Amino acid sequence: MKHLSKTFKVSDLPVDERPRERMQRLGPEALSTHELLAIIFASGTKGMPVTVAAQTLMTHFGSLSKIAEASDDEIKSMVRGIGTAKILRLRACFEIARRIENERKYENDLTRSPKITNPLQAYEMIKKKLRVYKKEHFFVVSLNSRNKIIGIDEISTGTLEASIVHPRETFESAIRHHAAKIIIAHNHPSDDPEPSEDDISITRRLKEAGLIMGIELIDHIVVCKSCFFSFKEKGFL
């Protein structure tokens, strides 16, 4: 008789042992890590039940952080037959977790953030946000009436041009944060802090738009790896 291979699913387990039903009944905190992984995978592979696949990963790598760092090939070598869809769901969950952690750190930074009293403080704050210097990143720092930071938003990535940095997008974040003032900032991949003609043109345009909207543009910081240019400090604003 020909052997038929079968893909084992969570539904093959007794109802009381199914991770999804256990989570619904007891809450996610009651589940083990491999049970949570089993819910993400949803089904096993040919010859390997989903709970065994999840437990195999945890046993081999030892922690979720190690699984997150593992390559697709490493995961595939541990769970034979695992498909791209399962790995993508796993990657998506890890990315969501990373973003939640970044949001919490960001919110904590805002709670403890001092007043911006000089361009150096603004420069150091934006520099922390930059990870890739090969492209230009444009930021809007929203401030309250006492110059305390109430929001930092990246508006665009790419070449800084008037067509990309539009007053609408710039002041949208400021309005969302109920800002009284803003500082704009962007980096120069060339590591030359001198502002370009586009930089100067954009600054003038945003200053005029801010006057109309009642949100003052108090500085434009050009960020480089070891130095910066302040439009206010240099008398451009």
Description:
- It is a single chain.
- With 237 residues, this protein is α+β, with helices and mostly antiparallel strands.
- The protein folds into two domains: 7-110, no CATH class; 114-230, Cytidine Deaminase, domain 2 (3-Layer(aba) Sandwich), CATH 3.40.140.
- Helices cover 46% and strands 18% of the residues.
- It is built from nine helices and seven strands.
- Strands 4-3-5-6-7 form a five-stranded mixed sheet, with helices on both faces.
- A hairpin with a 4-residue loop joins strand 6 (216-223) and strand 7.
- Helix 2 crosses helix 3 (50-61).
- It is elongated.
- The N and C termini lie far apart (85 Å).
- The model is unreliable at 1-5 (pLDDT under 50).
Topology overview:
Elements lengths: L6 E3 L9 H8 L6 H9 L1 E4 L3 H12 L2 H6 L2 H7 L5 H29 L6 H11 L6 E8 L5 E10 L8 H10 L4 E7 L9 H17 L2 E8 L4 E3 L7
Parallel strand pairs: 5-6
Antiparallel strand pairs: 1-2, 3-4, 3-5, 6-7
Measured by DSSP, the beta-strand proportion falls in 15-25%
Helical run tally: 9
Shape: elongated
Question: How many strands appear in the DSSP assignment?
Answer: 7
Averaging pLDDT over every residue, what do you get? 85
- Series of secondary-structure elements, N-terminal to C-terminal: EHHEHHHHHEEHEHEE
Which stretches are poorly predicted, pLDDT < 50 over at least 5 residues? 1-5
Task: Specify the helix fraction band.
Answer: 40-55%
Q: Under the CATH scheme, which class of the largest domain?
A: Alpha Beta
Q: Give the full name of the CATH homologous superfamily of the largest domain.
A: Cytidine Deaminase, domain 2
N-to-C terminal Cα separation, in Å? 85 Å
The strand order across the widest sheet is 4-3-5-6-7
Any idea what the CATH architecture of the largest domain is?
3-Layer(aba) Sandwich
Computed over alpha carbons, the radius of gyration is 25 Å
Q: What structural category do the secondary elements indicate? A: alpha+beta
Q: Largest sheet at a glance?
A: 5 strands, mixed
Number of domains: 2
What is the CATH topology assignment of the largest domain? Cytidine Deaminase, domain 2
